[in-house]
Amino acid sequence: MHGHTFSILGLPVAASVRRIAGPGPQTALVRAILLVFLPFSAGYYLSYFYRSTNAVIAPQLVSEVGLNAGDLGFLTSMYFLTFAAFQLPLGILLDRYGPRRVQSCLLLAAAAGALLFSFGDDIVTLAVGRGLIGLGVAGCLMAAIKAGTIWFDTRHWPVVNGCLLAVGGLGAVSATAPLEAALGVVGWRHIFVALACATVLVSGLILVVVPESRTAVVRSGLVQQVRELGRIYTDRVFWRLAPLTVAGMSANLAIQGLWAGPWLRDVAGFGRDGVALYLLALALALTVGSVLLGVAASWAERRGFPLLSFFVVFSIAFLLVQTVILTGVVPQALWTWIGFGLVANIAMATIAYLTRYFPPEQSGRVITAMNMLIFSGVFLTQYLIGEVIDLWPKDADGGYHPQAYMAAFGAVAVAQLASLLWFVLRRPQDDGSRQEPVI
Which residue, of 9, 205, 361, 369, is most buried by count of CB atoms within 10 Å of its CB? Predict the structure, then answer.
């Protein structure tokens, strides 16, 4: 970034914002928050709300549609399947047309999916609706991060990303106890109709309010963009980071987005109110942790502690928390789920690293290249957890066996451990970093 900067939420912002915001730092600050941060964060809020709803409405889906654990895992993971499938074209579109136009169009597909889901009375209709939702929100975080690479100074991208993730955490918060309370009043079908309307509103907000910057798009041909994407996918640094990033985010999203609720019911023995309360605490911890991790990463970097070293330390912490949960030694301990939420988003630190490592004009393709792998992993993880759980017979009250959760969550932890070893064993000199050292 070139030129003078001012700050949004304490973060330096490129001087190009001043041009669209008008004279005066206070006016510029307020208008930049309203015109850039809030519209994109509203989209990401909806994305995370959609992502997390099935953890609360799972009992209704099971009782009304007759789903088993495998069906529930498949239905919920359809969001991640279509989400992942669209990441590569999404990156090209973001770099070519900019985040504003791409995001506003995609959200209309999410609205259509929410409306279809609200009318679903069989697994096919529900799965198609869920898949459309995943497609429609596939760009919510990536478009916001792309906008962040345009407007924010590179040193503060970890904090910017953390703030965005915190907004997503608020979406997850809304999909816990507040959603449970709303279910007792209007039912899940009416809630999804309301979500469809809200999604159309946010789509229009982004299209009308968000400014477009000339630096938001690239003019290279499509063939050249595809070739550059190929170089991203053959880069050694990218593949050093990918396994641990994918494994960590898969564990985070698969458990927090669906299987934490059934675990709290079947292993910890909580009723619906207790499950909703713990999921609320988890979502709040996820929100707070996202900001704290971003701030701590920037603070550590300013004092010479590499971003990737920070990533490894907290990836280990995340794995240790999961180990305590899966063993069931303290099944009703709230601190384990708070710890899970505080460190669960650490894998997103690699997004900040990679957007520095590759040229800025490739940032859309870089983040979506990784995101495709992440959400492919989430799809498989969320679905396979259900399949593993189904290997054990149900209890007399219809719940799943605690040993089934231990086996399923244990497999997820083993995958993270293997990816951590891969990261450590890849020698730094093999990576050939172009812009900054790799641990």
Answer: 369
CA 219 – CA 29 distance, rounded (Å)? 30
Instruction: Report how far residue 35's alpha carbon sits from residue 208's, in angstroms, rounded to the nearest whole number.
Output: 9
Residue 1 has pLDDT above 80, yes or no: no
Residues 6+ apart with CB under 8 A from 203: 43, 103, 104, 105, 107, 108, 111
Name, in order, each residue with C-beta under 8 angstroms of 223's C-beta and a sequence gap of 6 or more: none
Residue 15 has pLDDT above 50, yes or no: no
Largest separation between any pair of C-alpha atoms in the chain: 68
CA distance 93 to 101: 9
- The mean per-residue pLDDT over the stretch 91-98 comes to 86
* Rounded-to-10 torsion of CA 42, 367, 301, 8: -30
Query: What's the rounded Cα separation, in Å, for the pair 355 and 145?
Result: 9
- The enclosing H or E element of 19 equals helix 16-21
Higher pLDDT, 111 or 362: 111
Write the CA distances from 369 to 41, 150, 160, integer angstroms.
21, 18, 20
